[in-house]
User: Fold these one by one.
Assistant:
Number 1:
Amino acid sequence: MEIKDNAFARQFETIVSEGLISVEYSFQEKKIFLTKINTPDGFNDEEFINELLKNIMNIAYERKLKVVPILPKIALFFRKNTIYRDLLPPGIKI
């Protein structure tokens, strides 16, 4: 999976046959706030979204960022994938 960090649009992007999938973010200090997932109409491959989020977590590790999940779907990802909990800032419980 190829992920582009579109810093101008403040989103991670990847292309699928149905179109563009993006995860919007904002930065504050050494934290990345994941705020929204945009998918093409009719796209409902949750496993693909999970793989995309796993790749974004790896990017956060590489950049030494903490991840703040604003979107409930991303908070659910953290609940299901406990190996990424160390990316959460201190004080955030999911």
Note: The beta strands are 4-6, 11-16, 19-28, 31-38, 66-69.
Number 2:
Amino acid sequence: MQTGMINTAHVASSAFAVQSRNGRPDFELADALKKVSPQQQARAQKTATDFEGMFLNAMFSQMTSGLKGEGPFGSTTGTGVWRSMLTEQYSKNFANAGGVGVASEVYRTLILQQAKTVRTA
């Protein structure tokens, strides 16, 4: 282990690694993770990933809403339903593959909030 790095062995997903925040070690999150149970950490990861999936779904829906023409993104009778299912799957896959960074920030916020409630309870 390098000097200044945080041990992230108990964090399951690399998208939620505690190694750094803006290029610096995130000691605040590392301390909070010690106070939060592994079950709560797993729930926070799932919640954060699901939130990012919903966010990406909204973005993808907006990207494809104005497309006209033929093919899978055209404006024929059944493509609206098909397009919504496609964008939902795209968003889930993006979020599960690491997303665009929304989930890691949501996860950090959830863990810090949970650690505060453990401390004050």
Note: Residues 38-64 form the longest helix (27 residues).
Number 3:
Amino acid sequence: MAERLRYGRANRHRGEIEALIDGERRVLCLTLGALAELETAFAADDLTALAERFASGRMKAVDMIRVIGAGLRGAGNVFSDEDVAAATVEGGIAGHAAIVADLLTATFGGLKGETPTDP
């Protein structure tokens, strides 16, 4: 399965979060590179368009896999999207959704009805 490369606690000031994935506490972060990966995956023209897509609150399972995968890789974890799809998270789909929501909030701030003005 995936190997964790980064150890330590998440720093919210850097946009990092922690999540329990496959029984191991992992750090996730949507770095600039991870956000570029998501722009491409979601065919978003820019960060504002990406944030607006996430602010809609509607996500497919594959969207959650992409966001969690990008966040894991952004924090230095060796995790493919296939690894994320096979991973277990406490709470099942609701647990995955909570990880995505926490990661997007740490990255963009409150997403409901607002988008970053200067990412």
Note: The longest helix spans residues 92-108.
